[in-house]
Design brief:
Layout (H helix, E strand, L loop, with lengths): L12 H15 L6 H12 L20 H18 L3 E6 L2 E6 L3 H7 L3 H16 L9 H13 L12
Antiparallel strand pairs: 1-2
Helix pairs in contact: 1-2, 1-3, 1-5, 2-3, 2-5, 2-6
């Protein structure tokens, strides 16, 4: 018998993919590249550090280090949700941007667990904080917002004060 590999429940491709679906569903019809989704997922988990609702996961010292290891995890989560028909990729001049499919909103609306309700509320909060899309690129504005959130993160040892 071949030993079965067990994927940890937290930060598995399934959980991360679901978090991305919640963000993209809240932001629909906006699309984001992989780098933005990495940062938005981080913001989703750490809303409490940015004057938002309590954070979903406990705040741990060094949580900023999550950003360094999330790229492959987020990509795996996106791939899983694309196979499930919940995320679609759109080619851009810089690569790909990802957006919620037409199936995403109905899917997340039927999830009724406490965790799903918490994700929905925090995804809505994060998206409400984003700059309005415009003809000019919103990417610098998004990066500035996320950088400000990260610099206010007390777990990083940086910032911690309001502007």
């Amino acid at each position: 018998m071949v030993p079965m590999s067990i994927t940890p429940p937290l930060n598995s491709p399934l959980e991360i993919g679901l978090r991305v679906v919640f963000v993209l569903s809240s932001a629909f019809p906006r699309a984001f590249d992989l780098d933005a989704l990495i940062q938005l997922d981080h913001a989703l988990l750490h809303t409490g550090q940015n004057d938002g609702p309590d954070s979903i996961h406990p705040e741990l010292p060094g949580s900023i280090g999550e950003l360094a290891v999330k790229r492959d995890l987020i990509r795996s989560g996106i791939d899983a949700m694309m196979r499930a028909g919940l995320i679609v990729a759109r080619p851009t001049n810089a690569g790909f941007a990802f957006l919620a499919s037409e199936n995403a909103a109905p899917f997340v609306s039927v999830l009724g667990s406490t965790y799903a309700e918490n994700l929905r509320a925090r995804a809505n909060w994060v998206v409400d904080q984003l700059p309005e899309p415009s003809e000019a690129s919103e990417e610098p504005q998004l990066r500035a917002l996320i950088s400000r959130w990260i610099s206010r993160n007390p777990a990083t040892g940086a910032g911690g004060t309001d502007d």
